[in-house]
Amino acid sequence: MPHRVAVLALDGVLPLDLGIPARVFNEACEPDGTRLYSVVTCSLGGRPVRTHEDYRIVVDHDESALETADTVVLATQEPTEHLLATGTLPGELAAALARIRPRTRIVSLCTSAFLLAAAGLLDGRRATTHWALCDALARLFPDVEVDPDVLFVDNGRILTSAGGAAGIDLCLHLVRLDHGAAVASAAARRCVVAPWREGGQAQFIEHPVPQDTDRSTSATRQWALERLAEPIALEDMARHAHMSVRTFTRRFRGEVGTSPLKWLAQRRLEHARLLLESTDLPVARIATACGFGDPVALRKHFYTYLGLSPLAYRRTHHAPEPELAPAGAPGRHRSRRPGDAM
User: Fold this and answer.
1) Model pTM above 0.90
2) What's phi and psi for 5, nearest 5 deg?
3) Domains of the chain with bracketed CATH
4) Alpha helices of the chain — where are they, by DSSP H?
5) Spans of the chain below 50 pLDDT
6) pLDDT tens digit string along 140-179?
């Protein structure tokens, strides 16, 4: 059965954010096109929802959809005056959230983290929300460890995201956890969005748009992505961009939100994850193909960013048996079979 996702829309919902879960999850498919998720949108009492804009939305489901969901997503709703004043939820909403099963995964987009906090679901946990309201969240709910500098926080069952596009990043993160990097990357391509930005990447806080687009670092980023197997130093990237190291680093951080070398390590790690899931290449070959040089460096990065070894990562994602290929052919691609564990 597809993984069941219920998206809860409340009065004041941001329409753009409301559409993110269905847009991303519905693009996660088996090779034959079968969807891996079933997404429904619900409201309290099944009533029409007044959006943050000048129109209402009619949904087909009420809060009973929360009872059977494997994942519940609270679409972005700015905190109400009642919530900001009391730190509590209206009775109808509290009763609806109480219908969620104990093992159901719960996700908040942007400022809906306030709803999870008011329900007590973030007590003692790290969480994030839109950077402009992080201080308010921390003041109102002192038992929540609020991190204003990240795109999303994964606590296992409870996940929170920052504003806007960070909701896309979090949904793709869930697809990657459930079905692997290849499925998530394919979904991202169909949505025409970046396939992976790690949760720890900084929120884009008041970054100005570069005035001199000819001096953008985008061409150098593409150049580096095409040479992940090669040793690339910061000086090499700056030279390709025809900038000094200092100027290149400043421009890169302004455009991407992180340093050039950290970005490069993230891209290499992303490529290594894909190869571990989709090929039978040995770890040493993957380390070389991704520019880590040797398995020791690859293992160090996996432990640092993922908390487990490359082989443990491969086992966790249950990579299927390789397809038949000519004898001695390296790096045969794998394909998931019906019934394989995720």
Assistant:
1) no
2) -115, 130
3) 3-191 (3.40.50.880), 218-317 (1.10.10.60)
4) 15-25, 65-68, 81-86, 91-97, 113-118, 134-140, 166-179, 181-191, 218-225, 234-240, 245-256, 260-278, 283-289, 295-306, 310-316
5) 205-213, 318-319, 321-342
6) 999 999 998 888 999 999 999 998 889 999 999 999 889 9
